[in-house]
Amino acid sequence: MGKGKLEKFAEMETFKNVFQYPFSILENVPFDMKGHWCDDYFKNNHPIVLELGCGKGEYTVGLARLFPDVNFIGVDIKGARMWTGAKQALTEGLDNVAFLRTNIEMIDRFFAPDEVREIWLTFSDPQMKNARKRLSSTFFMNRYRRFLVDGGVVHLKTDSNFLFTYTSLMVEKNQLPLLQKTADLYHTADVDEATRRILSIQTYYESMWMERGLNIKYIKFRLPHEGQLEDPDVEIPLDDYRSYHRSKRSGKATGK
Ligand SMILES: C[S@@+](CC[C@H](N)C(=O)[O-])C[C@H]1O[C@@H](n2cnc3c(N)ncnc32)[C@H](O)[C@@H]1O
């Protein structure tokens, strides 16, 4: 681990907008703010929006600038990345921002039923071989239902054709209300000006993939509480720029 990282970790301990709960800590220390983020931290009753796998937190910070009356929480396990967004939010005095360092697999331990209004998934790892780690899988959707309002909105922005296709099929199969979908975000006329401002926020990974010439995809849908979710039972071609050591096809879309 480089010195830079150690310094960032030490500094992050002093950041009032960062909550660090890796599994080892959560096992011993209960998370008291579950159900009380607005009262205890944000000190308002504004809706909460999560960015899961936030990395450096570009969406968390960018959306917080655009929407001062909404509270944004970036979640990731990588502290050194999160430091960038947390530091930026403190420097700008953005009181509507927090960061939570934990494993997203335990995300329902941090939020109470109906505490969250929307979820952003920004350039998530497609997890082509393991649907249970894929942040837009039915496995995670069932987790999200535990704290997302009924019909809450999920946004997925991605470079990955695999993840975009899987998520689209998952939405279709479960008849989740589709709000927007484009396989080439920056070359479609079908986006209004307000949405375009939101979608023009670019993350570190987005810039990297765009430099490599990949199209950016976006899908936005509602997640109602009712109904049992099923995974699409379809083969999806793997992203060949990621699957260097793997065969060209995934097996089932579930990746099992
Ligand atoms: C490909 S990066 C994208 C980061 C950022 N959203 C961006 O676009 O630049 C995926 C991020 O998700 C985080 N991540 C993936 N699975 C996770 C999990 N189960 N728990 C916490 N973080 C996770 C990784 O640590 C990483 O920072």
UniProtKB/TrEMBL annotation:
<feature type="binding site">
    <location>
        <position position="159"/>
    </location>
    <ligand>
        <name>substrate</name>
    </ligand>
</feature>
<keyword id="KW-0819">tRNA processing</keyword>
<feature type="binding site">
    <location>
        <begin position="203"/>
        <end position="206"/>
    </location>
    <ligand>
        <name>substrate</name>
    </ligand>
</feature>
<protein>
    <recommendedName>
        <fullName>tRNA (guanine-N(7)-)-methyltransferase</fullName>
        <ecNumber>2.1.1.33</ecNumber>
    </recommendedName>
</protein>
<dbReference type="GO" id="GO:0043527">
    <property type="term" value="C:tRNA methyltransferase complex"/>
</dbReference>
<dbReference type="InterPro" id="IPR003358">
    <property type="entry name" value="tRNA_(Gua-N-7)_MeTrfase_Trmb"/>
</dbReference>
<dbReference type="Pfam" id="PF02390">
    <property type="entry name" value="Methyltransf_4"/>
</dbReference>
<dbReference type="InterPro" id="IPR055361">
    <property type="entry name" value="tRNA_methyltr_TrmB_bact"/>
</dbReference>
<feature type="binding site">
    <location>
        <position position="76"/>
    </location>
    <ligand>
        <name>S-adenosyl-L-methionine</name>
    </ligand>
</feature>
<keyword id="KW-0489">Methyltransferase</keyword>
<feature type="binding site">
    <location>
        <position position="125"/>
    </location>
    <ligand>
        <name>S-adenosyl-L-methionine</name>
    </ligand>
</feature>
<comment type="similarity">
    <text>Belongs to the class I-like SAM-binding methyltransferase superfamily. TrmB family.</text>
</comment>
<dbReference type="InterPro" id="IPR029063">
    <property type="entry name" value="SAM-dependent_MTases_sf"/>
</dbReference>
<dbReference type="GO" id="GO:0008176">
    <property type="term" value="F:tRNA (guanine(46)-N7)-methyltransferase activity"/>
</dbReference>
<comment type="function">
    <text>Catalyzes the formation of N(7)-methylguanine at position 46 (m7G46) in tRNA.</text>
</comment>
<keyword id="KW-0949">S-adenosyl-L-methionine</keyword>
<feature type="binding site">
    <location>
        <position position="103"/>
    </location>
    <ligand>
        <name>S-adenosyl-L-methionine</name>
    </ligand>
</feature>
<keyword id="KW-0808">Transferase</keyword>
<comment type="pathway">
    <text>tRNA modification; N(7)-methylguanine-tRNA biosynthesis.</text>
</comment>
<feature type="binding site">
    <location>
        <position position="51"/>
    </location>
    <ligand>
        <name>S-adenosyl-L-methionine</name>
    </ligand>
</feature>
